[in-house]
């Protein structure tokens, strides 16, 4: 309980930071005042047109990616489950490129469906490849299958981008992973998907607990193993699609956050998931805020910051033998 | 005397599958199958090269191509000699360098998957090069230096992070993949920082492309590779010693750590040099050594065959890359990745991942 409160406080602080810090600094007190009472002037304009939408999208994407990572790690019973590492985000990216260049879709709300299809196809492909052959889906095989699918999808993207310069210009800012410059309408469009995905993932929380004990034990406990995997997988795919669609491929949030949550609240997924949902936005918003202040006046996109902070985490985890390679 | 058992013994003692070559006092063993394979690949590559020079927007007859190659006057001097030949030369050199680099790294890591494009060497080279390009530090002439530095740095980082009371193949690959992802996002960051023109240039570069490149890139790469040739001869011998398990090799007096370090450094150097000249042409370094080993059936990855196969793969991929969507030219890396990724998937499905190469 204590940790949950602490995480909620941390999220509140992250939101305040995200509202206050930037090229035009706004005092936290002023930010709260504008938020509660509206208000006029330059600060209020910046708040409502830039910072609030960005923060809201950041929170949504953080929740989506953290829950997707938790579900994937639970389903695959694998500590390195992450939409970015496993190539699922890249699948969504291919969907977006196809949408831009072939279908002529140029609005973020139009991307969503393409991103979903791409993410779903990639996740099925990666898991199918990794679980075939000797030994089942071990972390190394999953990561390698992810790397292979990643490379294949990237080559598809590159091929289309080099033959189509206009798409490149639209796509290059999207592919880096950023929550800058997102407007409020976007948040309005993605929230139903976020809700559906979250509900799906939460509904299998108990199933994931049983799954952690192994397939046979889970069956013995009366869980429908296949149903848990399919429902959780759909939920994770929807959440990844939401995250990627809104912010581009952001790696490592889905990897690091579930581990931190597990370290704090134990192995019960009904506790891990709310915890992850609180911590995911914290990581994303803090990365985003750091990206704003490291090299002023320019900004470093959140996707780069999460990758740079996530890799040390992955290295530490692999070295601690948390991953049985 | 020649019929006696004693006289025959030295000949009988040679390992199966090898032929003994004697020139005066010098003698060495040649793996028969490897020699035949190398010859066959070389012939195939030569044939492909002629096709490469013939085909294109304007068809040039093979006889004319040969005229140009042998320095006789011909109407196709410009198309073949100025446009296609430099690009072909660069493709051959880059492919060979990737082949050797991949072979050496795979030998040291004892893992077919530890190829430079998976463990972050190519991404490191890309990141530093694109960084230099974006911030206008380097002209195109000095970019290769950045590539080499980036590749070596990335490899060192992965090696250090993965070293924990010894080396473990799985840990090495996992950390390499993580570092590769992080470096790729850095590349994307640099691309968004630059203006549109630089972005397009960089986008083509990071896929690995031979478009619009020629002697300016090929000549320095060729000389550098030539200078490194003696090291490759050393590597071919040293490679055999590292094949034993650690205990046996140490007992035989092989300076194991130094040898491995030397081999790995050489491999990274080759891969980064190739990346510097043409960008990271994906999967050549993974494919060439593995196919070479299956062709020759040697215990070690054969370096010469890997080099030849690497060259063959790059040229074979660049030909359709030029022709498929003419007049738009695809980067050659798109095609090598499109072929290489399924091969990697096949390797994973076959379950040859965690174990030895």
Please explain how this structure is put together:
The complex is a heterodimer of chains A (325) and B (357). Chain A is an all-alpha fold. Chain A has one domain: ABC transporter involved in vitamin B12 uptake, BtuC (Orthogonal Bundle). Chain A contains 14 helices and no strands. In chain A, helix 1 packs across helix 3, helix 1 runs parallel beside helix 13 and helix 5 packs across helix 11. The longest helix of chain A has 34 residues. Chain B has a single domain, classed as ABC transporter involved in vitamin B12 uptake, BtuC (Orthogonal Bundle), CATH 1.10.3470. Helix content of chain B is 71%, strand content 3%. Chain B is built from 14 helices and two strands; from the N terminus they run αββααααααααααααα. A two-stranded antiparallel sheet of chain B has the order 1-2. In chain B, a hairpin with a 2-residue loop joins strand 1 and strand 2. Chains A and B meet through helix 6, helix 7 and helix 14 of A and helix 7, helix 8 and helix 14 of B. Chain B: Belongs to the binding-protein-dependent transport system permease family. FecCD subfamily.
